[in-house]
Write a structure and sequence with these properties.
single chain, 1425 residues, alpha+beta, 8-stranded mixed beta sheet, 8-stranded parallel β-barrel, 36 helices, globular
C-alpha cells in the first residue's frame, strides 16, 4: 500500500463505470452501502475524472485486486471477486467529512489473499437463527473478505435442513422441549425451541452468499452427534431406541449403527439432496466425537468389522468415512471432516479440519491431504475473550483473546514448506451451546473474526498486532454505527504502562474510534465515579501497585466492561531489575560454552541457517556464460566469467545500506564472514579479505528454490530487515534465454520500527575486470549504473571484458570513480561515504579509476516494505580456450552427414579448428549494452517463465530429499563445467578445477550419467550426439571420448571408451523419442550403425555376445574380460540399434541375434546367483599382452609384473560387487527402452549393492585413493566391495571411493525396480554429506567441482513415477512406484508442467509451451486423461 498526498471527493455526481454485467450485483451492493451510510447512490457511466472505474482483469489471481485513488479518479482492477474485495477496501477508506462531503485519500493498493480458504462457522443446530440473521452474518463476513461460510446444520440438539425424502427429520428432529442454559445440566429454561430451513430458503441463502463471493460449506454431522436423527428414525441406531432430542449439552453415547445397511442408504439419500442444493467443492461430514461403546456392543457392527477384516471400532468408523468419501466423490464433490476422521485410516480424498490443536492437520498434510486449520486453542471464538469471566457473558469455557487469535500462524514448523502447501487456510468456529441470540453471536465473533480475516488474507511477515489494533478502531466504529453488537476491546495501551522516575506512565487510546474513556485511580467503579480521560496519566508507584479502572463509552451509547490497567508495583520493578542482572550474568557465562551456530537438524529442501550455511556457494549464470556464486551469507564469490573456473576469485563487490540516525546503521548486506574463510584460504596468511572487515548483518538465512536463491538478513542495530533474491533465467525448452550472461538481484527492505526511516542502498565494486599490463582498464557510464571495463589488445583479444551493474530506478546516483590512492585508500574513503550517507558523484572514464558505487535513497514508513531491483550483465566475447589435436590421416576425418530426402541442409555446423573458443552469447549480443538492454526489457517476462518452472518443479509431491538432490545438481548447468560455443553447440568439461576445467571434451563416459539436459534442453543435448557421431567419429566408426574445443575433428590415437560409445548409441534413441522427428533419426542412423559395427568388431570380434577384449571405461582404465557393467551397455546398445534400424527399414537380424546372445551371456556367465561380476581374461584375445597394450597410466613395474602373473592385469574388479555392475540396464530405462536383462537378476544385483556397498559410516573404511568425497563419519555408497572375498591386490583405481553420480544412478535404478526406500536411503545419505556444514550443497564434486555425473539424480523423477513422454507416438507413460496419488514434474521438447495421478487417474497440467498427449498408459493400461 502506498499513500499519496491529497484526496478525492465522492458525491451524488460521481459515476461508476463498468462494462461487464457480471459486476452489476457488486455495484448494487456498493450503492446499498453508500445509500445507507451517506445517502448517496452512484449512477452508471463515465464522467471524466469524477468516476469510479471497475475493470475486469482475468490475468490477475482469482481474488487479487488493485485499487488506485488519484486525481484521475478511482480505478479498481481484478477478477469479479477481486473487484468485490477492492470495493470492500474502498468502503473502509471512505471518510465522512460532514455536510455531504465524502473523501477518499490518494492511495495505491495491490492486494491478494494469503489463503484461498478463509472460513467462519456458525452453529445453527443448537440454536436456530432466522434467514435474515444468517444473511446479516454473511454480510459481515463479506465485509472482511471471509469467503467460506461453514454452516453447521445438524446436531444432537436439532436438525435444521429440509430433506424431502425424510420429512420427519424436520417435523421431529428440529424441535426440543427445553434447553440447558447454564453449566449445570439441571439448569433448564423449559422453553420449546426449534426451527429449520426449507430448501427454497437454503437456495436463497446460497445465492445471497454467492453474490458476495462466499462459498457455503454445509455440515451434516455423522456418525455421532445424530440424536436428532435417531429420535426420528430409531431403527438407525444400534439399540433401537426410543430416543428424544437432548436438552443438555455434551457428547451422547448414541450414534448411527454402522453395521446396518439402512444407515448407509439413509446417509446417501441425505447427502444426495445436500449435494444437489450446495454447489461448493466440499461437503462437511463431521466425524467428530463418536463414542465407540454402542458399536462394541452391537452384533451388526461387530459382524461388519469381522466381514471386512477391520481391526476395531476406529477402523469401523474409518470404513464408514471411506464409504462417504467414495459416494461424495462419485457425485463430483469432496468430503471434509473434523480431525477424528484420521482415526482408523484417512479416506483417500478427504480433507481434514483440524480442531483438537494442530496435530490432526499436521498429520493430514504430512500424508498429502488438504487441511483447514481451526485449532480450538486459537480458533474457537465461542471461548471467553478475557480472563475476567465475571464481566463476560456465560460461555462454554476456554480462553481466546483478541491478541491470541491474531498471533496464530497456520504454517507450522513441524511441516516442510511443501507440506504446508496442503494447508488451504484457516477457520474460526462459533459453537452455539450458550449462544441463544444473534447479538451474542456477534459479540463472540467480533472483533475476533477481524483477526481471523487478517490471518487468512495478509502475509505473515506483514502482520503487526499494534498496527492491527490501531486500524481496528475505525472498523469497530463503523460496526457501532450500523448497530452491530461486538465486544468492546480494552483500550489501546491498557497493558503497556511503563515506569519512569518512580511513576507509572499510562497512555491510553480508545479501542473504538470516537469513544470516550472514563477512569478511576482508587479502585472504584468508573461507571459511577469515573473521570473523562484526556491525557497521559502519571501516577506514583506504591508497594500496593497502581489501581486504575476504566471503561469505554461508544458514540451509540454502548459501554464496555470495566477493565483494570496493568501496571507494576515497586516490588515487581525491583525484582525485574534484579532478575535482568542475573540473566545477563548467566548469559555471559553461558556464552562462553555455547556454540552459536544452529544445532537443529535441517530438513531436506528447507531453509539453511547457522552451521548449514558455511559452505554454500550457489551458482548464478546462464548455460555456457560463466558464473559467480552467491554464498549462504549473501556474499559473492567464485567470479568466473572469463570462460574458465576461478574458484578463489572473490572480488571486492558488495551491497550496503545506510540508515540515517542510527549509530551502527551502515552495514554490508551480507551475514557474518564464515569462520573457515578467516584462515586457510589462498593468501589468508597475508590478511587479505577485501571487504570482510566491514560491519555486516548478524542474523541471516539462505533458501534455494532453483534457480532462485533467497537470503534473509536482520540485525538489532538496524531497523530494517532485508530479503535478497538472486537469480538468472532458467526456462526448460528455451535454451537461448537460459544462456544469458546476466543476473538479477531483488532487494526487499522492511521497516521493523515504529518510526519513519531514511536510508541509502548502495552497490559498490572494484574493477575486477582489470588485467594489469594488458590493454586499458576503466569505469564507464551506464544509465543508472556503471560498467567495469577492460580492453583487449591485438595479440590478446581475450582480455576484453565488460561487467555492468545498474538499476531501473531514476533516483539512482552513480560515483564512477572511487578515491584514487595507494594501500587501502579507495575502500576506506568508499566506506566513509557510505557511513555518512554521502552519495558522491564523480564522472566516468577517469584514468586509474579502481572502483565505482551506485546509490538509491529511499524512505520507509513504519511497517512499510520497499523493493529495489539490481541488474548485472557481462560480455566477454573472446577466450584463451583451445584444446585438442588435429587429424593426422584421412581416416581421422569423419564422414559427412547424409541428409534424408525430406531435409535440405540438415547439418549446418562448420567444424573448423580455427581460433579459440568464443561463447554463444557473443554471436547474439555485440556489446555489453546489447546484453543490458535485453535484460532490462525482458526481465519480467523471463522471470515469469522461470518462475513457472520453479513452481512446477517444487509443486511436485515427490520426497523432499529427491527434489533437493535434483535441483541442487541443476546448478551444474550454470557452472563453469558447461560451455556453449559461438554456433550454439554445447561443449562440456567433466567438472571444474580451481583454475581450469576438469577433463575436457564432453566426455562421453561421464556425460552418460547426466540425464537432465536431454529433458530440459533437448536441442542442446542433440548437439552432443551430433558432435559424437559427425565430428568425433572417424571413418572406421571409432569415437574419441573427448572432443576438441572449438568443436572439430581430431586425431584418433587412443581407445574409444566402451561405455561412452555404446551409451551414445542408446542416447540417440532417447533423443529421437524425446524429439519425435524421424528425419533426424534418418540423418543419424548411418553413423550410429557404423559406430555399432565398430564396437562389435573391436570388443566382441568373435560375436559371443560379450565385451571381452580390453575396453577403456569411466574408471580411466581398461577392463580385461567380460563383465556386467560394459556387457549390459552392449546389450542395451544392440537393443537400441534394433529399434532404430527397424524404424528406418534396415536389416537388423544380426543385431537381434547378438542381443539375444548378449542377454544369455550376462545372465548365465556373469551372474553369480546374487550379483553381476567380471570374468577377468587376458589371454586368448586379439589384444596384445597387458604389458604392451596401450593404456592410460597403467605401468608394469617389476612388482606389478608379479601381480600380473598371480591374478591378471591391474585395475580389474573380478568377483567384486560393483555399484555400476549393471549400469547399462539403467541406461536402457532412462533412454526409454525396456530392460533386456532378467529384471529379477537386475533387482538382485541392486539389492546386493545396497546391502554390501552402502555404508552409514566410513570411519572404519580404508581408502588410499581420493578420500574427501566421503570419509570418517560420512556415509556413502562405495564403488565396489568384495563381500565373498577375491579382492585383488590392485583393484581398479577408484574402487574405494564414493561418487555422488553413481549413488544417484543406483538410487534411481532401485526406484525403477520398486525398491524405493533403499534408493531414498542412499539419496538422504548423499545429501547429508552436502548439507552445507562441510560441503557446498550446490556443488557435488568428484574429479572437480560441479561434476556432471551428479546429474544422474534427474533420473529419480522417472524412477519414482515411471513418467515418460514419447514424442514419436504422442504417448504419456506413468508407472508409479509411490502410489496412485502424486504430482511430479515433466519437461519435454515442447513444454513442461506437472504430471501425476489423482486417485489413480492420470492428469497433466502444462505450465509452459505445449505437450501433445494423444494417449496415456498407466502401468501398462491405456487410460483416458
Amino acid at each position: 500500500m502506498v499513500m499519496g498526498e491529497g484526496s478525492w471527493d465522492v458525491s451524488a455526481d460521481t459515476r461508476i463505470n463498468y462494462s461487464n454485467d457480471a459486476l452489476t450485483k457488486t455495484v448494487s451492493l456498493f450503492n446499498n452501502y453508500l445509500d445507507g451510510r451517506f445517502g448517496v447512490t452512484l449512477k452508471k457511466g463515465s464522467k471524466g475524472k469524477n468516476a469510479i472505474h471497475l475493470q475486469i482483469d482475468k490475468k490477475m489471481p482469482l481474488e487479487a485486486y488493485s485499487l488506485v485513488v488519484d486525481d484521475k479518479g478511482v480505478t479498481i482492477k481484478g477478477s469479479e471477486a477481486g473487484i468485490f474485495y477492492g470495493i470492500q477496501t474502498l468502503q473502509q477508506l471512505l471518510v465522512d467529512k460532514g455536510n455531504g462531503c465524502i473523501q477518499l485519500p490518494y492511495i495505491m493498493i495491490n492486494d491478494e489473499p494469503r489463503f484461498g480458504y478463509r472460513g467462519l462457522m456458525l452453529d445453527v443446530a443448537r440454536y436456530f437463527y432466522s434467514v435474515e440473521y444468517v444473511k446479516e452474518y454473511i454480510d459481515l463476513m463479506a465485509r472482511y473478505k471471509i469467503n467460506r461460510f461453514h454452516w453447521h446444520l445438524t446436531e444432537d440438539a436439532g436438525w435444521r435442513i429440509e430433506i424431502k425424502k425424510y420429512p420427519e427429520l424436520t417435523k421431529i428432529g428440529a424441535w426440543r422441549n427445553s434447553t440447558q442454559w447454564g453449566h449445570n445440566p439441571t439448569e433448564q429454561d423449559r422453553i420449546p425451541h426449534g426451527g429449520f430451513y426449507t430448501q427454497e430458503q437454503i437456495k436463497e441463502i446460497i445465492q445471497y452468499a454467492a453474490d458476495r463471493y462466499i462459498t457455503i460449506v454445509p455440515e451434516i454431522d455423522l456418525p455421532g452427534h445424530t440424536m436428532s436423527v435417531l429420535a426420528t428414525y430409531p431403527e438407525l441406531s444400534c439399540t433401537g431406541g426410543p430416543f428424544r432430542i437432548p436438552e443438555t449439552w455434551g457428547i451422547k453415547e448414541e450414534v448411527l449403527c454402522l453395521g446396518n445397511d439402512k444407515t448407509y442408504r439413509f446417509v446417501e439419500d441425505v447427502l444426495s439432496e445436500v449435494i444437489d442444493l450446495f454447489p461448493g467443492e466440499y461437503i462437511h461430514i463431521g466425524g467428530d466425537e463418536a463414542p465407540k461403546r454402542r458399536w462394541k456392543e452391537c452384533p451388526k457392527c461387530q459382524r461388519r468389522i469381522k466381514e471386512n477384516k477391520l481391526k476395531d471400532e476406529h477402523e469401523l468408523q474409518s470404513y464408514f468415512i471411506h464409504h462417504l468419501d467414495e459416494f461424495v466423490t462419485g457425485k463430483g464433490r469432496k468430503i471434509i471432516g473434523w480431525d477424528e476422521i484420521l482415526e482408523g485410516g484417512l479416506a483417500p480424498n478427504a480433507a481434514v479440519m483440524s480442531w483438537r490443536g494442530e496435530n490432526g492437520g499436521i498429520a493430514a498434510a504430512g500424508m498429502g491431504h488438504k487441511v483447514v486449520m481451526a485449532p480450538n486453542n486459537y480458533m474457537y471464538i465461542d471461548y471467553y475473550q478475557s480472563e475476567d469471566y465475571t464481566n463476560e457473558p456465560l460461555n462454554i469455557g476456554g480462553l481466546v483473546t483478541l491478541e491470541h487469535i491474531y498471533s496464530y500462524e497456520p504454517y507450522t514448523p513441524k511441516l516442510t514448506k511443501e507440506q504446508c502447501g496442503y494447508i488451504m487456510g484457516v477457520q474460526a468456529n462459533v459453537w452455539g451451546e450458550f449462544i441463544h441470540h444473534p447479538d451474542k453471536v456477534n459479540y463472540m465473533a467480533y472483533p475476533r473474526a477481524m483477526a481471523l480475516s487478517e490471518i487468512g488474507w495478509s502475509p505473515a511477515e506483514k502482520k503487526n498486532y499494534a498496527d492491527f489494533r490501531e486500524r481496528l478502531a475505525g472498523c469497530l466504529a463503523e460496526l457501532d454505527r450500523q448497530g452491530v453488537t461486538f465486544r468492546i476491546p480494552e483500550p489501546i495501551g491498557w497493558d503497556k504502562a511503563i515506569v519512569r522516575g518512580g511513576n507509572a506512565i499510562v497512555d491510553l487510546k480508545p479501542s473504538v474510534e470516537g469513544a470516550d474513556i472514563y477512569y478511576t485511580t482508587d479502585g472504584t467503579d468508573p461507571r459511577l465515579y469515573g473521570k473523562l480521560y484526556t491525557d497521559t496519566l502519571q501516577l506514583p508507584l506504591s508497594f500496593s501497585g497502581v489501581n486504575i479502572k476504566c471503561y469505554l463509552r461508544l458514540s451509540s451509547g454502548r459501554s464496555s466492561a470495566v477493565y483494570t490497567v496493568v501496571a507494576p508495583d515497586i516490588n515487581t520493578v525491583f525484582m525485574t531489575k534484579y532478575l535482568l542482572i542475573c540473566l545477563v550474568v548467566c548469559a555471559l557465562i553461558f556464552q562462553g560454552c555455547w556454540h552459536h551456530e544452529s544445532a537443529v537438524e535441517r530438513g531436506y529442501n528447507e531453509k539453511y541457517i547457522g552451521e548449514y550455511t558455511r559452505k554454500i556457494a550457489f551458482p548464478i549464470g546462464g548455460i555456457g556464460t560463466g558464473m559467480f556464486c552467491i554464498e549462504g551469507t549473501g556474499a559473492l564469490s567464485n567470479m568466473s566469467i572469463r570462460h574458465r573456473p576461478n574458484v578463489f576469485n572473490e572480488p571486492t563487490m558488495f551491497a550496503a545500506i545506510h540508515v540515517k540516525g542510527y549509530e551502527y546503521g551502515t552495514r554490508i548486506l551480507e551475514g557474518p564472514v564464515p569462520e573457515w574463510k578467516k584462515f586457510g584460504a589462498p593468501n589468508s596468511s597475508r590478511g587479505d579479505g577485501s571487504s570482510w572487515g566491514m560491519p555486516r548483518f548478524k542474523e541471516y538465512s539462505f533458501q534455494s528454490r532453483f534457480p532462485f536463491a533467497e537470503v534473509e538478513l536482520a540485525d538489532q542495530n538496524v531497523p530494517i530487515d532485508v530479503k535478497l533474491v538472486a537469480w538468472n533465467p532458467f526456462i526448460p525448452t528455451d535454451e537461448d534465454n537460459s544462456s544469458l550472461p546476466v543476473a538479477g538481484f531483488e532487494y526487499e527492505f522492511h521497516n521493523t520500527s515504529n518510526e519513519e526511516v531514511q536510508a541509502v542502498f548502495s552497490y559498490n565494486s572494484m574493477n575486477f575486470m582489470q588485467t594489469p599490463g594488458r590493454g586499458k582498464a576503466y569505469i564507464d557510464a551506464a544509465k543508472n549504473g556503471f560498467i567495469l571495463r577492460q580492453t583487449g589488445t591485438e595479440n590478446e583479444p581475450f582480455c576484453q571484458g565488460d561487467f555492468m551493474i545498474y538499476t531501473d530506478n531514476p533516483q539512482t546516483v552513480v560515483n564512477h570513480n572511487w578515491f584514487r590512492g595507494g594501500w587501502f585508500d579507495p575502500l576506506s574513503i568508499c566506506w566513509d561515504n557510505l557511513e555518512e550517507g554521502r552519495m558522491e558523484e564523480n564522472p566516468a572514464g577517469l584514468e586509474g579509476a579502481v572502483g565505482a558505487s551506485l546509490y538509491v535513497p529511499f524512505t520507509l514508513a513504519p511497517g512499510e516494505t520497499r523493493n529495489i531491483r539490481l541488474y548485472m550483465a557481462w560480455h566477454v566475447p573472446y577466450s584463451q580456450e583451445r584444446i585438442g589435436g588435429i587429424p593426422r590421416t584421412d581416416t581421422d576425418i569423419p564422414d559427412a552427414p547424409v541428409c534424408p530426402d525430406e531435409l535440405s541442409n540438415c547439418y549446418t555446423y562448420e567444424n573448423n579448428f580455427e581460433g579459440n573458443y568464443r561463447p554463444w552469447y557473443s554471436s547474439r549480443f555485440g556489446s555489453i549494452q546489447d546484453v543490458a538492454n535485453y535484460w532490462l526489457d525482458n526481465y519480467d517476462a523471463l522471470k515469469k517463465n522461470t518462475q513457472l518452472f520453479t513452481d512446477a518443479f517444487y509443486d511436485s509431491t515427490l520426497p523432499p530429499e529427491v527434489k533437493e538432490a535434483v535441483a541442487a545438481n541443476l546448478s551444474i548447468l550454470k557452472s563453469t563445467t558447461v560451455l556453449r560455443q559461438y554456433d550454439g553447440r554445447m561443449w562440456n568439461w567433466e567438472g571444474s578445477h580451481d583454475n581450469w576445467g576438469s577433463c575436457h571434451g564432453s566426455c562421453t563416459h561421464v556425460w552418460n550419467y547426466a540425464q537432465a539436459v536431454s529433458h530440459l534442453f533437448p536441442k542442446l543435448e542433440r548437439t552432443l550426439r551430433e558432435t559424437e557421431f559427425f565430428v568425433s567419429q572417424d571413418k572406421r566408426g571409432h569415437q574419441v571420448f573427448r572432443t576438441n574445443l572449438p568443436i572439430s575433428p581430431t586425431v584418433h590415437d587412443f581407445h574409444s571408451a566402451a561405455d561412452g560409445q555404446l551409451g551414445g548409441i542408446m542416447k540417440v534413441y532417447r533423443e529421437w523419442r524425446i524429439m519425435g522427428d524421424i528425419n533426424w533419426l534418418k540423418m543419424m542412423y548411418p553413423a550410429v550403425k557404423k559406430s555399432m559395427d565398430y564396437c562389435i568388431r573391436t570388443w566382441d570380434p568373435r560375436e559371443v555376445g560379450a565385451v571381452e577384449e580390453p575396453h577403456h571405461n569411466t574408471y580411466d582404465i581398461e577392463f580385461w574380460g567380460a563383465n556386467g557393467m560394459i556387457t549390459s551397455f552392449y546389450v542395451g546398445a544392440l537393443q537400441a540399434i534394433c529399434l532404430m534400424g527397424k524404424t528406418v527399414g534396415d536389416d537388423i537380424s544380426r543385431y537381434e541375434e547378438l542381443m539375444n546372445k548378449s542377454k544369455a551371456y550376462l545372465e548365465s556367465k556373469l551372474f553369480d546367483g546374487e550379483y553381476f561380476i567380471q570374468n577377468i581374461q587376458w589371454t586368448g584375445l586379439d589384444a596384445p599382452d597387458p604389458v604392451d597394450a596401450q593404456s592410460f597410466v597403467t605401468h608394469y613395474t617389476p612388482e606389478a609384473l608379479k601381480i600380473l602373473q598371480e591374478e591378471g592385469p591391474k585395475y580389474q574388479y573380478g568377483k567384486g560387487c560393483l555399484s555400476d555392475g549393471i549400469l547399462g540396464s539403467w541406461m536402457t530405462l532412462v533412454c526409454g527402452m525396456p530392460e533386456v536383462v532378467d529384471r529379477l537378476k537386475v533387482k538382485s544385483h541392486l539389492i546386493s549393492v545396497h546391502k554390501y556397498n552402502f555404508k552409514k559410516s566410513l570411519s572404519n573404511h580404508v581408502n588410499p585413493q581420493r578420500s574427501t568425497f566421503a570419509l570418517g563419519e560420512d556415509g556413502g555408497l562405495l564403488l565396489c566391495t568384495w563381500p565373498k572375498g577375491g579382492k585383488l591386490k590392485l583393484p581398479f583405481v577408484y574402487s574405494n571411493e564414493v561418487w555422488t553420480g553413481i549413488e544417484y544412478q543406483v538410487a534411481a535404478h532401485l526406484m525403477f525396480e520398486g525398491e524405493v526406500e533403499k534408493g531414498l536411503e542412499i539419496v538422504r545419505t548423499c545429501r547429508d554429506r552436502y548439507n552445507g556444514r562441510v560441503r557446498n550443497p550446490f556443488n557435488e564434486y568428484e574429479c572437480g567441482a560441479w561434476y556432471a555425473r551428479a546429474m544422474a539424480s534427474y533420473a529419480m523423477l522417472e524412477g519414482l513415477t515411471g513418467i515418460r513422454y514419447d514424442a514419436v507416438d504422442k504417448i504419456l507413460y506413468i508407472d508409479s512406484r509411490i502410489g496412485d496419488d502424486f504430482t511430479s514434474f515433466l519437461s519435454t521438447e515442447t513444454g513442461f508442467g506437472n504430471v501425476g495421478l489423482k486417485e489413480g487417474k492420470p492428469f497433466i497440467d502444462v505450465k509452459y509451451g505445449v505437450i501433445d498427449v494423444q494417449k496415456c498408459i498407466v502401468s501398462g493400461k491405456e487410460i483416458q486423461l
